[in-house]
Amino acid sequence: MGDRTLERSGGNSFWPATVLLAISLFLPGFVPGFGWLTFVIPAIGGYLLLVNGTRRGLTGMAQATLVAGAAAMAGGGAGHFLFSCTFLPAAALLARSMARHDPPWKAGAVALATIVCGWLLLTLVAGLVLGINPYTETMAAIDTGIGEAAAYYKQHADLSEKLRAEGGDLLEWMRRVARLIFPSVLFASLLTTVWGNLLLLQAVLKRKAPLHQPWPPFIDWRLPEATVWGLIASGVLALLPAPLKPAGINGVIVFATLYFFQGLAVAGTLFSRWSIPTLLRYILYALLLLQAYGLLFTAVLGLIDIWAPFKKTGEASPPPNA
């Protein structure tokens, strides 16, 4: 990805994007309400690189990192700053994938792998330097929270001894389930973060720099057909006894998340085909997202699209320039 390939068509976007990137790197460590900024760093950094070219974009990323790092060190937010930095390589690789006209699933896979590697490296450093493991600390916090809820329930609930015992058993079951599925829930959250960055970056480029749009509309995004074998294998493992069963259950959750995204694309295709008004589309999307049955229905819809593909309304992405 070179400066000649990336034509600068986004106007005067260098300093606004650089400042926003710096804010995203350090502000969430001081103001919890802005924590969401951390998770859009790949889109901000990718935009900075795509619109301004590799060399100037990397200069902006370096400047933003230095300023944010100095602010974090001065204010005592070094830990969150280091966590935010794990998203920066994903920004560079996401921009590279878009410049090469890689399909969305491939760009997302590369960004996902980069973030996971960054988290693993940060966990290793935290363990060596501070003697802590963020994963085990989180699991311990979950156990403590459910244990405190169980103790409070048993002491204060105005119920019979039988109902108290049943409530305690339910909370203990919740603790076991939380420990069982926490890896896949964490990974699914990361998948959602990457997917959201792909959509956000494409939307911003469509508005600010139309020449840098290598992908078709979201309704035309598709997973590789081979992905279904991962879901099938996970389903088989989930039916087997331990120690394979936990791996299968977690795998089903991860692959169901992927097919939920594809199901949303299918829903978008149907809304477009049926000429659903924009406001009503947002309402229907909200219903799919907020209801448990809506989530399941959308994932199944995405899975069905593998064998009985719905007709898409967009066109294939243009080939990369020679």
Brief description of this entry?
It is built from twelve helices and no strands.
How would you portray this structure in words?
The chain has 322 residues and is mainly alpha-helical. Helices cover 73% and strands 0% of the residues. The chain has 12 helices and no strands. Helix 9 (227-238) packs across helix 10. The protein starts with 13 loop residues before the first helix and ends in a 15-residue tail after the last helix.
The portion of residues forming beta strands comes to under 5%
Q: Please outline the major beta sheet.
A: none
Order of helix and strand elements from N to C terminus: HHHHHHHHHHHH
Mean pLDDT: 86
Number of helices: 12
**What is the end-to-end distance?**
12 Å
How many distinct beta strands?
Answer: 0
Over all CA atoms, what is the radius of gyration? 22 Å
Work out the helicity level: over 70%
> What class, by secondary structure content?
mainly alpha
